[in-house]
Structure formats: C-alpha cells, structure tokens
Amino acid sequence: MKDFNAVEGKKFGVYGNSIFLAIENSVKPVIAAVNGFALGGGNELALACDMRIASSKAKFGQPEVGLGITPGFGGTQRLPRVVGAAKAKELILTGKAIKADEALAIGLVNKVVEPEALMDEAFALANAICANAQIAVRQSKACINRGLQTDMATGVAFEAEAFGLCFATEDQKEGMTAFVEKRDKNFKNC
User: Which of 53, 61, 75, 151 has the most CB atoms around its CB within 10 Å?
Assistant: First the structure.
C-alpha cells in the first residue's frame, strides 16, 4: 500500500469493505476467535464478525493514523457501533492498542479465555447457536443488522415482519410444542 495513489487507495478500500460487508451480511452467524494481534484490518475483520472471543494474549487496535491513513475496511463505522463513539474516537485517533481485558470491558469482545481454551470456547458458542432454529437465528441476525441502520419504528417493523415469518415454519411449531410438552426440541430447519 505504501506506493498507492488516491485512486488506488480508494479502490483497495472499496475491495476490502466489500469482503467485510459480505462477512457481516452472511446469513450465518460468524464468530471471530482472536489469539494474537488484531490491528488495523485484523480488528476490522473481527468487527465484521457477529461475535468475538479473545485469548488473554490478544491485542486490538486501529493504528492507521500513525501510518498517515484512516481505517479503510469499516473501522470508522463498525467500531463506534460496537463500543460507542467516544471510545472508538479514542482508539482510532490515538492509534492505541488495547489488551483483551480492556477489549472485554468496553464490549469489543464477548469473552476472554486462556489461549488453549480459545477454539473450544468459540466452538461451544457456535454449537449453542446451532442448537436453535436456524431460520429464527438468520431472521434475528438480519433484524439486528438492519435495525442498527435505522430508527426504532423502522427497526421494530423489521422485527414484526421476521416474527410473523417464523410462524410459517415447522420449527416454530416444533419449538413451541416441545416447550409446552416439556420435551427436547427436534428442529429440522424448515
């Protein structure tokens, strides 16, 4: 990137953002498992994921201003939505890296575990999500993502639509029947 001109820089940013938007907009939940440095594009990649599990040795940051550039793959947009505007401005404008425990304290990561437990924890979270009705999971993720981009009235309208659509699924019938009958559910994801 050192020798990019303005047009090449923008083109690279558009390309990177297209990839991270595809991750963010995936119908499937995406979990980042961070076991080292997530700086610049690495942090932006983690931010494009739905949830983030970090090992105790992970570090996060947006150091781009120290290189004479802004974050280019969505950091200025996702970080404030995750940690709030003031904290995002502090991290982006100072270029400071933070340790996993601070990332947890500001809501950047969901959980911090020891490095040897990282993948087990990420898979446990994935399995907990997979145990639920996948149409409802996809609709819930879509409602959250869409709702964050709009006002409350529009967001709850998205939610009402998704809620109604779930009642047309076999999984809704199975889930509620299993609850009433006090038995394990058997979702077929349809």
Answer: 53
Distance CA 49, CA 53 (A): 10
What per-residue confidence (pLDDT) applies to 123?
98
pLDDT band at 83 (very low <50, low <70, confident <90, very high): very high
Q: Does the active-site annotation cover 170?
A: no
Report in angstroms the alpha-carbon separations of 62 from 51, 76, 148, 166: 18, 9, 22, 39
Give the predicted TM-score (pTM) of the model: 0.92
What is the pLDDT averaged over residues 56-85?
97
Contact 60, 34 (CB under 8 A): yes
Active site residue 90: no
Residue spans of beta strands (DSSP E) within 108-174: 111-113
Catalytic residue among 44, 116, 121, 170: 44
